[in-house]
Write a structure and sequence with these properties.
Two copies of one chain form a homodimer. Chain A has 151 residues and is an alpha+beta fold. In chain A, the strands form two sheets. Chain A has a three-stranded mixed sheet, with helices on both faces. The longest helix of chain A is centred in the middle third of the chain and has 14 residues. Chain A is globular and about 50 Å long. At the A-B interface, α4, α5 and β5 of A face α4, α5 and β5 of B. The first copy, chain A, binds a DNA duplex (30 and 30 nucleotides) through α4.
Chain lengths: 151, 151
DNA sequence: CTGCTTATTGCGAATCTTATTTAATAAGCA
DNA sequence: TGCTTATTAAATAAGATTCGCAATAAGCAG
């Protein structure tokens, strides 16, 4: 899980016959400058770019997010909102995980070094090239436990 | 993560003012009798029931799957197909996790006792009531590493 | 630097999954 | 046994993501 610059992104793309476009560069830049713990949906990213005066189509955003997740640059998070979120994929010691309330969708980040170790070991054992490893805990938060009415 | 019978499901539902319907009973039964390691999408379950002559609408299936996941009866898995899969939520020592190839979507199940312990501890520390904890590894399988062409 | 090949973009339409609305039904309780 | 209201089926809608295609432009060869 290396950290990318525009240059290293370009060479990794070109090595595979792909191209570095201004759109891809801009999107990488957004994620690299995102506050720690923040993650964006495709729609979020689209709006954010609109507000900055950057005109990138939703199609391109979806394509780029998927591409970068498959390259290991971004992590694809399945939180509780019904659509995917993305964040930059950083190695130890920034690597973290999510605790989600299934009722109110509140999400807490937590760290645990042994998880990444387990992921690395498991992938290696099977001959897989590791891109990302996530632990997701589904639970009911204290507030929703007390308000025991809704689903 | 207790194991449910139709009876215990009924009392847990009734305690909250909800009802045990034949549809819910049938769906629980399907998951309880599923071979270990098998998981179903809403569509899968719908087709399976159709073939058995059970007529349960897709709406009801979606509602029931979500309900049972929120009760902790089922695990909601986000594998690579673009839609959710469900399986019965079994405690140690049947608790397991998934290693997914992001290119061909091949999925391998693996076990690791310490993950469930970490999940339990983390949820407890935050005062959350644990329903499920999953580790998901995104990686590239040996076959797709060799065929280095597609995304 | 210039031109060529083809990956990539933007747009609109299509698709796929999931949620919602509504009238009819039936579970659970008194 | 009857009443209240949660639940169902069916149709419709909503939301997220993908696809097809023509126009554009990145990267390579000369």
């Amino acid at each position: 899980m290396p950290l990318y610059t525009a240059g290293s992104l370009k060479s990794e793309l070109n090595d595979r016959g792909w191209r570095l476009t201004p759109q891809r560069e801009v999107i990488l830049h957004v994620f690299q400058n995102l506050a720690r713990g923040k993650h964006l949906s495709a729609e979020d990213l689209y709006n954010l770019l609109q507000n900055e005066g950057e005109q990138i189509s939703l199609s391109t955003i979806y394509r780029t997010l998927k591409l970068m997740a498959r390259m290991g640059i971004l992590r694809e998070l399945e939180l509780a909102e019904g659509h995917k979120h993305y964040e930059i994929n950083q190695p130890y010691p920034y690597h973290h995980h999510h605790l989600i309330c299934v009722r109110c969708n509140k999400t807490i980040e937590f760290k645990n070094d042994s998880i990444l170790k387990t992921g690395t070991k498991t992938a290696k054992k099977e001959g897989y090239h590791l891109l990302d490893c996530q632990m997701t805990i589904h639970a009911v938060c204290p507030t929703c436990q007390r308000a025991l009415l809704p689903i």
